[in-house]
Amino acid sequence: SKPTIGVIGMAVMGKNLALNIESRGYTVAIFNRTGSKTENVAKEHADKNLVPSYTIEDFVNSLEKPRRIIMMVKAGAGTDAVINELIPLLDKGDVLIDGGNTFFEDTIERNQRLDKSGINFIGMGVSGGELGALQGPSLMPGGQKEAYDLVAPILEQISAKADEDGKPCVTYIGANGAGHYVKMVHNGIEYGDMELISESYNLLSHLYNNDLNKVADTFKDWNKGELSSYLIDITANILTRKDDQGSDDFIVNKIMDKAGNKGTGKWSSQSALELGVPQSLITSAVYGRYISAYKDERVKASKVLDGPKAAPDINVDEFVEKIRKALYFSKIMSYAQGFAQMKAAGEHYDWDLDFGKIAQIWRAGCIIRAQFLQKITDAYDKDANLDNLLLDDYFENIVENYQDAIRDVVSYAVKAGIPVSGFMSAVSYYDQYRSEVLPANLIQAQRDFFGAHTYERNDKPGIFHYSWYEEQ
Ligand code: NBP
């Protein structure tokens, strides 16, 4: 029988996704620009129902109609090159899925362009790395709903299943670029989680005089409670690993403190800036990575710029618990901002996003999988139009109770000279968001003074301009 679906791109993600689909009982066509990669996969898995092709025409012709094709190629020019080769070969009603980490605006444009020839185009976020692709990723598909319905049974089978209720970690996200947008925010949130965990690790290392066994044990302990998540779990694991190059030290002490990035965190911040939504958590995580990359300059500066002479006295055990609470508080602020950003994007791009479902499909398969995502689903089940997660009872209660802890942690870190930009962003956002009155009245006065930008009054409607240059 003809393959039900085909995968283009036989690098690690495409290969693993093809194997995942095949393992659910499908025959899968495979193709890669460089034929030797296709050949290697076919040879390595000769016992499986994979149908290799060595020209894109043969690949397209091998497929059952309507054709279902998943591209897993390098985002950007690679994706465009493949689409341009495919367009003349596809028929109306075929479904082309881009599973790469594509910028959502490119997906909107491609969806609209291909739609003109009747070709359905789905931009699908895939999270979970190479193991996720093989065993069950979290999938965020956006595009024509009727096209999604044609691939939904396959996507549901290959996706991760939540531990809580066995539900597949895939749902129709919305039109055109909605899937890639949600994946972008997912990655931004991932940056935020990683920044907050690394700040906690830094504080714990300081408190425990660099005894990494104790730091690892603390993360293990935290993973049993409300912070339970994949990223906390791998952090505990990482911190126990010894150097593989012969020294007695832990590997983490040997890894250069320069963080890389592939741009999805930056895209999230840029989009938040465009939409006018506060996104200080992801942005401080992006900046945290950027400043880490200035290693040489930091080494020089560390010899010139002194920090505080001594850290305040604290009770270590009590303080560890405060860091745990500060981390959970900050994580809540980060997700509150991420979901508020998606709400604004949904309104701007006219996507009917279901936030409860989005949290639901992040419960397994993806990098930010965590117990607490269920709490987000619960919050949107109670009120689908919630303005901000902080206004939900569960989250309101936690952040009110944990605020003293994060205030203590941030004060201590500032006095001890330990950078905690993520924690600071979190507590600042909380204090700004809950302020009935902010000092923006003065900013409006200044704008009106130097630029006649006008202002509104808080006691009557209308637009006002004050005669700043006239004597009263
Ligand atoms: P890469 O992102 O490294 O891309 C390599 C693939 O793109 C190869 O199949 C390569 O073919 C193909 N390709 C390139 Br490069 N330029 C091409 C062109 N002009 N025409 C046709 N094919 C071209 O692979 P990956 O790490 O497997 O990731 C695939 C996609 O999945 C990416 O968009 C990535 O961002 C996304 N993603 C990755 C992860 C992850 O954990 N790695 C997770 C989630 C999503 P060749 O063999 O002929 O060079």
Report on this model:
This protein is an alpha/beta fold and 472 residues long. It has three domains: 5-176, Rossmann fold, CATH 3.40.50.720; 183-433, Orthogonal Bundle (N-(1-d-carboxylethyl)-l-norvaline Dehydrogenase, domain 2), CATH 1.10.1040.10; 438-472, Up-down Bundle (Single alpha-helices involved in coiled-coils or other helix-helix interfaces). It contains 19 helices and seven strands. It has helices spanning 12-23, 35-44, 56-62, 77-86, 104-115, 129-135, 145-158, 178-207, 212-222, 230-238, 264-275, 280-293, 295-304, 316-349, 355-361, 373-382, 393-416, 421-433, 440-451; strands spanning 5-8, 28-31, 50-52, 68-71, 95-98, 120-127, 138-142. The protein has a seven-stranded mixed β-sheet with strand order 3-2-1-4-5-6-7, with helices on both faces. Helix 4 links the parallel strand 4 and strand 5 (95-98). Helix 8 crosses helix 12. The model has no long low-confidence stretch (mean pLDDT 97). One of its GO terms (biological process) is D-gluconate metabolic process.
Radius of gyration: 25 Å
Q: Level of helix content?
A: 40-55%
Which range does the strand content fall in?
5-15%
The small molecules bound here are:
nicotinamide 8-bromo-adenine dinucleotide phosphate
**CATH classification, class level of the largest domain:** Mainly Alpha
What is the correct CATH architecture of the largest domain? Answer: Orthogonal Bundle
Largest sheet: 7 strands, mixed
What general outline do the C-alpha atoms trace? Answer: globular
Order of helices and strands: EHEHEHEHEHEHEHHHHHHHHHHHHH
Q: Structural class of the helices, strands and pairings?
A: alpha/beta
CATH superfamily of the largest domain: N-(1-d-carboxylethyl)-l-norvaline Dehydrogenase, domain 2
What kind of oligomer do you see?
single chain
Uncertain stretches: none
Mean pLDDT, rounded to whole units?
Answer: 97
Into how many domains do the coordinates divide?
Answer: 3
Number of helices: 19
Q: Please give the order of strands in the largest beta sheet.
A: 3-2-1-4-5-6-7
